Amino acid sequence: MSATLQTTLPDTISGLLGLEGILGDVVGGLVGAFIIANIMLITTAIAGPWAKRKITAAFGDRIAVNRIGPFGLLVIIPDAVRLMSKELIVPEGVDRPAWDLAPMVIPFSALLGFAVIPMGSGIQLADPETGLAFAFAAASIASLGLVMSGYASNNKFSLIGALRAVAANIAYEIPLVITAASVVIFTGSLRMSEIVAVQAEPLLTIAGVSIPTWFAFVNPFAFVLFIIANLAEVGRNPFDIPEAPTEIVAGYQTEYSSIYFVLIYLGEFIHIFLGGAIAATLFLGGPAGPFLPGFVWFVIKIWAFFLFTQWARSAVPRLRVDQFLEVGWKGMLVLSFANLVLTAIIVGVIA
Amino acid sequence: MSEWIAIGAMGVVAVGLPLVMMAMSAMLRPSVPEQGKSATYESGEVPTGTARVQFNIQYYMVALLFVVFDIETVLIFPWTVIYRSALEQGASLATILTPMLVFIGVLVVGLVWAWRNGAVKWVKSPQASRRKTERKDA
């Protein structure tokens, strides 16, 4: 396994601009980060005001937005303006700096995670040796934002929501990371580009069609575990107890209005896509795929994960909070350790 | 080094974007201060007291368990990274696998102990159980 180091996006940009050294790194990094952040903003803009409605409506046999533009797509623009021009209501007794910082921390953590994701077609901001660990670390910062928003809101629903969010994160973080570790046993590297490169090797050939060693094919059990833990991490059904609209109004975001609500919502959506991106990188060959360019495949894969979360939202009932913790600690944790040990033994015996 | 500069740049952009959006919203939005608006939401009732209350977190033991397991995942990662290359370089399976099996085994014993002690059990507050009236015979 030779390390095939592709040029990252900042290098390409600084090369195009003819800049070198630290200046090239900084300028290339900033421009590249801006491009990637905007890719994610556009994705979220399509997902939030349009795709989510359309998907939910399709499951409920309804029509949803269809007035402006093709398939109602242009509803995104008036919706964005509407959401941003809402009055910001500051409730009584909120803990001011924390209450204002929380809506920044949540999208920050999700966007930071995207810095190491290989999006194909040379779109990858950075490729550090510890890429996978960094992605998990960055995604975990969001819990801090959720606790800040919940505790600072001076609202009991928010408080319960924040505590539940922490419980969800600590219960499912370990299965998530341990399952990812079982993939690292195969790759022998935490570098994202190498994890993708390892999966390009052919697994077997059926009727002239070569199937790559995507770890979803090599170890489907780990893939299922990872997707379930991922659903819980991003707080979607059947694990959406931190928000549980029928129990605690909107959880930690109950007291947020105007742009603060938009930012929290945005952060959650980018989180879903980050979850999908990590799952795609670890298990679905990253941006690899036949015929189409890498970036298109990457978009297809993260949207597939988004569609899956929305499907689960429409089809699966929510767990009760004690069942939720039981599934995490007694089910997922044990299964993920069994998966790790079995993978290590099988790889060891075959090698 | 350059990759961490790029990640730092992402951090700057990820802070800047929310700030820009906040500034845009501040220019667009109205401000109509009225009394009743600023009360926190409590299903339409006047809120009783603040939310800074003592709250029975039934899962606080779980948080302690998490610390143990989280550190453990950090210790597992280096092992998974070198596992395959060590095998390819001729280290025997016993020397490379057994220590980690023992390590995970100790943790699993710890989890079983915590499980049997009820650390991952949903603790019901005695007060709430006393107040509960329905289905007492069950």
Q: In words, what does this structure look like?
A:
The complex is a heterodimer of chains A (351) and B (138). With 351 residues, chain A is an all-alpha fold. Chain A is built from 13 helices and 2 strands. Chain A has helices spanning 9-17, 21-59, 76-84, 96-113, 131-152, 156-187, 192-198, 215-218, 220-233, 245-248, 258-283, 294-315, 321-350, and strands at residues 202-206, 209-212. Chain A has a two-stranded antiparallel sheet with strand order 1-2. In chain A, strand 1 and strand 2 (209-212) form a beta hairpin. In chain A, helix 4 packs parallel to helix 11 (258-283). The longest helix of chain A has 39 residues, at 21-59. The two termini of chain A are 15 Å apart. In chain A, 54% of the residues are buried. The model of chain A has no long low-confidence stretch (mean pLDDT 84). With 138 residues, chain B is mostly helical. Chain B has a domain at 59-126. In chain B, 62% of the residues lie in helices and 0% in strands. Chain B has 4 helices and no strands. Chain B has helices at residues 2-28, 60-88, 93-116, 126-131. In chain B, helix 2 packs antiparallel against helix 3 (93-116). The longest helix of chain B has 29 residues, at 60-88. Chain B is flat. The termini of chain B are far apart. In chain B, 20% of the residues are buried. The model of chain B has no long low-confidence stretch (mean pLDDT 80). Classes of the chains: A mainly alpha (351), B mainly alpha (138). The interface between A and B is large, with 90 and 73 residues.
